[in-house]
Amino acid sequence: MTVLTVAVVLVTGLCLLNLLLTVAVIRRLKEHTALIGGGVDGSDAFPDSMLPGGARIGTYSAETLDGTVLTRDDLHGHTLIGVFSPGCSGCAQQLPHFVELAGNTPGGRDGVLALVVGGLEEAAGEIAQLAPVARVVHEADDGPLTRALGVQAFPAIARVDADGRVLASGVEVADLENAADV
User: Fold this and answer.
1) CA angle 92, 96, 76 (to 5 degrees)
2) How far is CA 108 from the centre of its chain?
3) Three-state DSSP class for 41?
4) What gap in Å lies between CA 58 and CA 69, rounded to an integer?
5) Which residue of 65, 70, 151, 155 could cross-link 91, Cys pair, CB 3.0 to 4.6 Å?
6) Residue 71: how many other CB atoms lie within 10 Å
7) 19 and 95 both lie in a single domain
8) CATH number where 102 lies
9) Domain that holds residue 4
10) 10-residue averages of pLDDT along the chain (182 residues)
């Protein structure tokens, strides 16, 4: 009878220990989610997804999918820039908003530059959505345009002036609202 009592107490103790460890792991996961994701949609995760406002983009030479070679000197007026990557959930959320903004950008496609980073086959969906409204450049990871823009996270969205100076940047189209009147 005492062996049975000891076994029950031991099993109960192990169950309580297991419960405490599970609660601790869940609490830690919530902390990590808050640190990684920022807001509910993850929009605050990387506030500097690319060069911040006031910075000047670096020099680059990049070929669009239609064969046109672009450099920083090809920027005219205020250019809308979007950087996307296939498989990125934030990119999938922001891409329709970017396409809508790009469609309403003065200068049409010449006023919009889209960069898709990743494998060409995987990027086909993003490229198909962007091609009607933007000059599209495709690069593998860490290409010349990616480096010139200082891309650190996806998506990265910006508006730059003719001198290549970043007017506003962020991870959401809404981050450009403060540059809408410039």
Assistant:
1) 110
2) 23
3) coil
4) 16
5) 155
6) 14
7) no
8) 3.40.30.10
9) 1-37
10) 86 88 84 63 58 92 92 88 93 94 89 92 93 94 90 92 92 75 43
